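Q: Start with the shorter request: fold the first protein.
A: Done. Sequence, then structure:
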Amino acid sequence: MPDVLTHPFPHPSCFEDDEFMNAKKLFFAMASIVALTGCGGGGGGTGPMVPACIETAEFGCISSARYEEELERITETHRTRISNQWELAAIQADQAYANLELTQGPDAEPGAGVTVGLIDSGIDTEFFRFSGKTVSEEFFGGAVDEQGDEPSHGTAVASVIGTRPIIYINGLPFRRTFHGVAWGADLKMFAIPLRDQPPPDTPYEPIPLTNLRPGSFHTTPFFAALDAALMQNVDILNLSISYPGIIENYHKQDIRNHLSRTIATFAQTGAQDKTILVWGAGNANGRPCTPGSDNCVDEFLDASSVEFFAGLVARIQELRGHSIAVVAVGQGGDITDFSNRCGIAADWCLAAPGEEFRAAYFGPDRDGRPGVRGSVYVRGTSFATPIVSGGLAVMKQLFRDQLPNTALVTRLFATADKGGKFADREIYGQGMMDLGAATLPVGETGINLGLTVGSPGVNVRMTSLRLGGALGDGLGRSLAGQEIVAFDSLGAPFWFKLAGFTGTTRGPSSLIRLRELTAQNPITRRIDRRLTTFTPARAGGSVEQDLGYGMLRFGYRERPAGPEGGHFMLADNATTLTFTGVNGMSFSTFTASGFAGRAPTSGVALAWRPFDVPVGFRAGWLAEQATLLGTMATGAFGQFSADAAVTGLETSFEIGRWHLAADAEIGKAHPQVRGGIITRMSSLTTSAFAFNATRRLANGGLIRIVLSQPLRVEGGRAALSVPIGRTKDGDILRQAVSADVAPSGRQIDVSAQWYYPLVNGELRFDAAWMHNPGHNADADPAVRLLAGWQFEF
């Protein structure tokens, strides 16, 4: 699994206890919220990162926990389907199929879109096990279309790659008892005449290079077929054929002297993406041999290294990176008695199942009648080889053909099982093939910010965009459907939904509402007939000095004035210095830098309301050092900061026993973005308002009714440069995205509060109904209920 965060936003009751305590009062609060809201809705907190969701074809973008559940469920389904095919279970094909199904859908066929080439005896293109797929054949060196008078080696080998699990006979579907590793892959056979296997008691005879005239090998049917396959840009070429001779007994210069042109062809110098050559290691171990000959021990061959062609990569440097030698193991994982060992080719050698499993049979029946089609149990490195070839096809499909073929080989080697017995490199080379591991991220998965795959990037787990309430669902909605790619430590691409890295705050914060409930008398913020820019401190403190011509006040942990949830709530818990003049003017500077886990915010505020005038004016400037209207970016989203200018009007008056008040603000924020995929953001127009009516009751309590809109972005756009893939040369593919950041809805809150005095305190209740919580037009209305008891002592 990709490394992603699994924990969602914190529970709405996550508040700091000391917010509700001072020296003379204790306040016990209970909160109940239906259609839950998130903590920190009003300010730029430093809460946990938003969990990235993982894109799936069938379930959309889902959490990593859900992904794990679905992966296990689908893996178990495939595990059941291949329970009679130990060869697929041994390479963890069930997990690879599950990875593929999750990313490409339940109808995805492993290997689809990839053509695997084979140089072999030929293929029965009409075989019913190949129905519904593309199978083609070319003939070289006198090879002819097989008629089934001899068992078809090529048909059996090809079936290990591409036999379908469901075949159609007379238009009716039938699920077969076995299928190939990559049953969705197309097959292209380059048929050549093959020499019959010698009788088992025939002594092993390596062919000396001196029997080949320098340069003559390129005239053979094999070379002609090889040349044709490479000319047709086949990505994977299965070579379940061998040339007798243990590679350790041949010297590099001798090989170059006799096979220079063949080596040049194998090397594919100048090819943009080299064809992967998958060779059978050979079945020479334990063969009778002539005493005194190389590797002959007690008259039986000790095949301590792979045979000649499979082992060329150990002697010829330019073949490394796109050549694989495959040895065969049995059901217990032990090397088979017949298989050559990896030996000196260990760095380029891999183990795969190679005995006692089913493959297609095309040939004569027991009575010699030709053309019989069925299945047969097979053994040999000839059949371990197509398991590797098929696995490579699945990998190529999963990574959308964005990895070069050499990277597929590197990945297959790096993810092989090297534990236990497979740690013996002399026998198993790089280890036991593990297709499940090869289709999962290796190491850390990161989003690259540079131009190439190897350029600096940030871990997926560290990437999030925690959207403040003002932006609502705007940016997340604009990015819906947009993919972003991350790369593992081997450069393989894995795709996510970009919107899955974003999270929105749903409605007003429980913390803020609980603070409001515990605040002092909320009837007015006018002190001594002067409009103040900050409310009195609750959990902090203040020092005041009457200067004669005005009041100077130093405040600690104060809340700015203005509409509930307005612009200045971004500086909640501020440290302030305020001068209030006798002319109704109030001026403050404030900072909330790093206090109580909040993002740094500073600014100035000015309030003016002449005496006996029903309307007051408010203006201010805010500077956020690490947030944008409360939105915090991490990882690939870079860093945010912003400054905002705010203006507002305030009025209050009495009608009978009711005190009526209204606040409204508009603002203009100027974002700065840097170091991430968001390259530019326009200025943002914002608004907030509140209307309230408060009435004192005869028993000393009060009721209060409020209609408000928390801070909302009214307009603005963001430009992004999103990595969406890679080229085979390692360049990052990017897509320019322009996103509307304004939310889809408008949150309107209607709330009612009731304060009931007691002998030693006060009961307080708050109920609110929220339309479009989080400014999300699709969000269901939310109801919030708060209750508390304030006890004085």
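Q: Next, the second protein, separately.
A: Sequence, then structure:
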Amino acid sequence: MSSSTEKLKKFFKLEIERKYDNRAVVGGLDKILPSWEKEARSESLRKEFINRIREKLVEYSKLDISNRGALLTELLGEISQQIQVKPITQPVPKSVAPTSTPVSEPARRKVSKTPTMPRETMSISNVTPNTGLHAPLDVIKGIGSKYYQALKKMDLFTLGDLLYYVPRRYDDYSELKTINRVEYQDEITIIAAVHSITTRPIRGGKMKLTEAVVTDGTGFLRLTWFNQPWVAKNYPVGTQLVISGKVDMYLGRLMISNPDCELVEQEHLHTNRIVPIYPLTDKITQKWIRKAMYQTVMYWAPRVFDHLPVQIRLDADILPLQEALLQVHFPDSIDHLHRAKYRLAFDEIFLMQLGVLSQKRNWQALEAAKYSVGDEWMEEIEKMLPYQLTNAQSTALQDVRTDLNSGHPMNRLIQGDVGSGKTIVAFIAAAMVMHQDAQAAIMAPTSILAEQHYNSFSRMMVKTEDNPQGIVEQQEVALLLGSTPEDVRQEIAEGLQKGLIKMIIGTHALLQDPVVFKNLQFVVVDEQHRFGVQQRATLREKGNNPHLLVMTATPIPRSLALTVYGDLDLSVMDEMPAGRLPIETHILAPIERNRGHQFIIKHAQDGHQAFIIYPLVEGGNDETKQNKAAVDEFEKLQTEVFGKFRLGLLHGRLKPAEKEEVMLAFNRGEIDILISTSVVEVGVDVPNATVMLVEGANRFGLAQLHQFRGRVGRGDQQSYCLLIPETDDALENERLKAMAASNDGFVLAEKDLQQRGPGAFLGTRQSGFTDLKFGDITDVRLIEKARNLAKKIFEQDPDLVQPQHKELNVISHVFWQDGKGDIS
């Protein structure tokens, strides 16, 4: 790079760091023009380039901040185009630097077959399908059919795809060293001259070894290449090279095997910088894709339109998009790289926030029937409950009452720890609606849980001799499961259509035809992460904008509550009903398994019940031999350990009717010890169960372990959770230690999110939230910043129709076109 262009680059970058205040040079950027033009002419820079720099710098002080940023980024791109880079014509063999043969100006600028773009900033939305960033990659010179097909395997189809195909990591070769300071295993860059270079056959002539000795005046260093004889021709004795690689040792001497080398006088893409390392596929090399990226990024990044309004960029303190794209591929420093990644991450989280806020607004714009009840009615209902409501339950109920009387459809998520009493809140909410002759539906993920809800609701709300205050007759409540006989199904369908059934509780069977409601006004989805977007939508569409309440016993970390569930109103239940004792959790070594069994025997002798959970249904191949399985262990436990007690076996391969029979027997106390897989994770409520023993505990996530633990401790007796890992080494498992340290599901949820990422919490809500390239939906600070700024725009222009939001509207639609999220 010439001295004059290097100076320009430094001034422009300083101006960007100063946030475009026009003070990088005393008096303004245009004050550098007289001396700069003189130096540029002496270096024979193109007249057109010099005139353009003069023209733009004279205009700079008159521009607003957003246009200043776009202009400087564009000019930085043009400065980069002054560098003589040979166009891609063929893949460069590994570790062989491209030649420094000058390239003509037309050849250097002919990056694609499309017409040269105008110099003004290009908008993503105003290009046709076959031009600009939407153009296919084979418009780039040198990308023939073979490389085009290879790039398609990497999901790269257009120039825009390439621009956003960011490196998977970076090798920092930006710090130069002299040879006398080089140490073993250093990753280094040196500048040295070739002292000697030879190629000789090895391994009986099957391979060729090229060896070079280079020197920088402070010492000598040996370089080697295998099967690359052309290296000796490209780098004759005396050639000045920039060399990067990892220092190894051979026969007591330092050396570098297969280093990256480039000529000193050319632009360094592979050495003497922070070098991008891209994900690859067959037939594509790092050097080849790096050159393709360089040509694409340097030409197109300055021409991308920044969709974020100026004020948002200033408030968020982020780079212009053009600069971020340049720096994420070819960073000038680690700090520039971090800022570039932050800008791209902010974009994704910001667009996500716009989407969930829009969904929430769309839902709130709908009209719904109003349902209100008096305080006296509420007091009568509360008298029917098995215990006094906690403060958290009362607060959640007040939220629900407000929603039902708002005239807009409720869209609320109740998240509460295991055993916090969410179901009672749902029952009372349903009763409010049914009290005014409307219908309600509760959908649960399993037959076991649905039947449990049916029995609990019937006990609390149905009129009987023991409960004369009940609000509905038994025939007005129905249970619909996949195993429900056809004649009963038809009877239920008829009752729902005529309005004779006011409350229906069931599984996915509720979604199927011919389930038609006369007046469905309230829908509850329990353990909502088990259901997909379409399933919830189908149930919702069976009514006319019904009120929707979704519940989860998996506490949701704040970062996810602000993103994935950001379109929902949130009620948190973090308080247990009175009389519940904290569950004691202990980790046992595999050798202490017998202690755990004896502990269960003692509790069974006292008339209590226990669970033993296994990670597998059955053992089998060598990989699973060390992992205990429910079916295999059931026989052994029945005959050798718990012979005097009644054991039951529950796993996912049983038919629905068989599962229900086992659980009903356990609920009735006909089974003392239930041997099971993870199917008991959700919702099983057996107050007499006091011990939960989990085998292979290290194989489960924190959220799942916490759910297992929640199956006990539902009565007034002290309960225990025993965790046995597969090996002694797993005793130090962080998840198990966290379980032993805390009973707080919200604390454990945050730890689980940190350890395993968001997938465990999303279930089937929408996989799109885990498809982000740059954003991290566990970064609470970034999410809160993006959400606050998205709200700021939303308050001013919710439909994004104002001129300054035109591009943001386009990008937002593109981001959400694959259906991230839903009106839940």
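Q: Describe the second briefly.
A: The first strand starts at residue 169 and ends at 172. DSSP finds 28 helices and 21 strands in the chain.
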